[in-house]
Specification:
The complex is a heterodimer. Chain A is mainly alpha-helical. Chain A contains 8 helices and no strands. Chain A has 2 domains: 80 residues, RNA polymerase sigma factor, region 2, helix turn helix motif (Rna Polymerase Sigma Factor, Chain: A, Orthogonal Bundle); 72 residues, Orthogonal Bundle (Arc Repressor Mutant, subunit A), CATH 1.10.10. The longest helix of chain A is centred in the N-terminal third of the chain and has 26 residues. Chain B has a domain of 273 residues: Neuraminidase (6 Propeller). In chain B, strand 6 and strand 7 form a beta hairpin. Chain B starts with a helix and ends with a strand. Classes of the chains: A mainly alpha, B mainly beta. At the A-B interface, helix 1, helix 2, helix 3, helix 4 and helix 5 of A face helix 1 and helix 2 of B.
Chain lengths: 166, 413
């Protein structure tokens, strides 16, 4: 890789790490996992940079890489392993505000990974249906149906709790 | 309330930013990404290997096994630059177990032309070739391994990879279409992967003229993520599946390598890195029992372990991977460039002398942002530890285009 492409990569990555980290954090809800996802994404990005640098919308490409890395993680099922590996004793209950987050995040993790990604991208990252369709490589109709299925699944898990205490 | 409002309100509490400082290493990403372009991934374990490990060692670390009488290890080495003809920057990419044959590639810093491949025999440059028929925009071909007869294998590793072989100074593609050749043993058996991008699977070429034959895979969804690391003299193929070590034995058995237990830790997996004297060196990744990180390499804390293929014995080399380099480790291992290179030899560490500075102090400038001033990576160590090969890099010219890379050979006694 030559000077110009290396410099281009460094410039691109240094400016984007906060946004990539935020996206990864919102997807998984875990800081360490977020850093792992970003590290994996920027490593693969470097490997492909001479070609990626030439695409029209690099940000969309890189965000797609990150979302796919997240979905791959889910496919590999590391979260099942981590549940199995959890210690039997329960930690002290977290404060109320984070408790709400914990319950929501746990519910989100119980629905299919692509639906998780769609809901996070739509409602936490404020992406449009068209954007999400591009990121996930599917049709806008699929994004809408995944949104609907995902929200219904959350309703079933949580009950109708919007606006109320969880 | 429609779905839009419901979704926004429901998920609103999850909005937020990561609170801690980022643990992201751009230099490591560049180093691993660059290697990723020319090498790949790996896997672990055969049914036999699992039985050996579990049966003979009870699945426990056999680190306390009486060590064999230690072969006499070299203690003093000398460094010399390998000749590079008219080229400017060259990197070592592999060598045969004796160290007689070394392969390398040119670094086309600041230029887009495909790289050249260099082959040295007993320290002399004997081959300097550039493959024909590369796709437009290809960065060139790298050789990843060479055997004691001087037959080298590799691939272009850039999107639509082809497996290549150099035999008698001539380079050509292996049979079977798209793929990559990752390792060759002295019998001429080649292993790698074949198939279109994202659908590659591990294969074996019985000789440089043979068609590839797929290696069997376990019925496991993670089989899609496989890599090939090495092939032993007896034909055992070492790789990874889903990040964990996997072995294909010559008798046809295959399976994940059973990892040793580590007291008080969850073992995430063993990532094979390099083969020497019948021992497979690699990173054993462990985490706290309640860790939420994925239970597979490279997640967790890494220690260097080695596994003896013939006996199933495990030994811990070190808890501190920063202590020295695992010579020949692939892209999954963070071999930091060292100003004063050190390598693991058996369970001990060998200091290697540095090559003379590439940039005179009078002409030196700060390295480009995010890069160290320079250092040495040890890409190879022979079975008898009497020959090592690597690359010394210097970034102190201030610009990446002025980077200097010299292939270095060490001879030890």
């Amino acid at each position: 890789m030559n000077d110009e492409t290396d410099a281009g990569y460094l410039e691109y990555v240094s400016g984007r790490i906060p946004a990539l980290r935020r996206l990864a954090f919102l997807l998984g809800g875990d800081e360490h996992q977020a850093d792992d996802l970003v590290q994996e994404t920027i490593t693969k990005l470097y490997a492909k940079w001479p070609r990626v640098a030439k695409v029209e919308n690099v940000d969309a490409y890189v965000h797609t890489m990150l979302v796919r890395a997240f979905l791959d993680e889910k496919r590999r099922g590391w979260w099942r392993v981590s549940l199995r590996g959890a210690p039997p004793e329960r930690p002290a209950p977290p404060p109320a505000s984070s408790d709400e987050k914990t319950v929501l995040r746990a519910a989100l993790k119980r629905i299919p990974a692509r639906q998780q990604a769609v809901l996070v991208l739509r409602f936490l990252c404020d992406r449009s249906v068209a954007d999400v369709a591009q990121l996930l490589g599917c049709s806008e109709g699929t994004v809408k149906s995944q949104t609907s299925h995902g929200l219904n699944a959350l309703r079933r898990i949580l009950g109708d709790r919007v606006g109320g205490a969880l | 309330m429609n779905n839009e409002e419901y979704g926004s309100r429901l998920l609103h509490p999850l909005r937020g930013e990561p609170a801690g400082p980022p643990a992201i290493d751009v230099v490591r990403a560049m180093r691993e990404g660059r290697r990723m372009r020319r090498r790949r991934w790996w896997t672990s374990g055969s049914a036999l290997a699992a039985l050996l490990a579990a049966g003979l060692t009870g699945g426990l670390l056999a680190a306390n096994r009486e060590p064999e009488p230690s072969p006499i290890r070299p203690t003093a080495c000398t460094a010399a630059a390998l000749p590079i003809g008219e080229h400017q920057n060259v990197e070592v990419t592999g060598a045969d177990p004796t160290g007689a044959w070394v392969v390398g590639t040119t670094l086309q810093v600041g230029r887009s032309a495909p790289t050249s491949i260099l082959v040295w025999h007993n320290g002399e440059l004997v081959t300097d070739v550039k493959p024909t028929g590369l796709r437009k925009g290809s960065a060139g071909v790298w050789m990843t391994d060479v055997n004691a007869s001087g037959v080298a294998v590799g691939g272009n590793f850039d999107g639509y990879p082809d497996p290549y072989v150099i035999e008698g100074g001539k380079i050509r593609k292996l049979a079977g279409g798209l793929g990559e050749a990752d390792a060759i043993n002295d019998a001429g058996v080649i292993v790698g992967k074949a198939g279109p991008p994202n659908k590659e699977r591990p294969v074996r070429w019985a000789s440089p003229d043979a068609d590839p034959v797929p290696l069997p895979l376990p019925e496991d969804p993670s089989s899609a993520d496989s890599r090939i690391t090495e092939i032993t003299p007896d034909g055992t193929v070492i790789g990874t599946i889903g990040g964990k070590a996997y072995l294909w034995r010559p008798d046809g058995t295959h399976g994940y390598l059973e990892t040793p237990a580590v007291e008080g830790r969850r073992v995430n997996g063993f990532e094979p890195l390099a083969l020497r004297e019948g021992w497979l060196y690699g990173g054993l990744y462990t985490a706290a029992p309640d860790s939420k990180s994925p239970a597979r390499p490279p997640h967790g804390k890494a220690a260097v372990y080695r596994y003896e293929l013939a006996t199933g014995a495990w030994q811990k080399v070190t808890d501190d991977p920063e202590q020295a380099q695992v010579a020949g480790a692939g892209p999954g291992w963070d071999n930091t460039m060292q100003a004063e290179p050190r390598v693991f030899v058996g369970l001990s560490v060998l200091d290697l002398p540095t090559h003379a500075p590439l940039v005179p102090a009078s002409a030196s400038a700060p390295a480009p942002a995010g890069l160290p001033p320079g250092g040495t990576q040890v890409n190879f160590l022979s079975d008898d530890a009497r020959v090592a090969a690597g690359t010394t890099m210097d970034f102190r010219n201030g610009k990446l285009s002025e980077q200097r890379s010299v292939p270095v050979i060490w001879r030890c006694r």
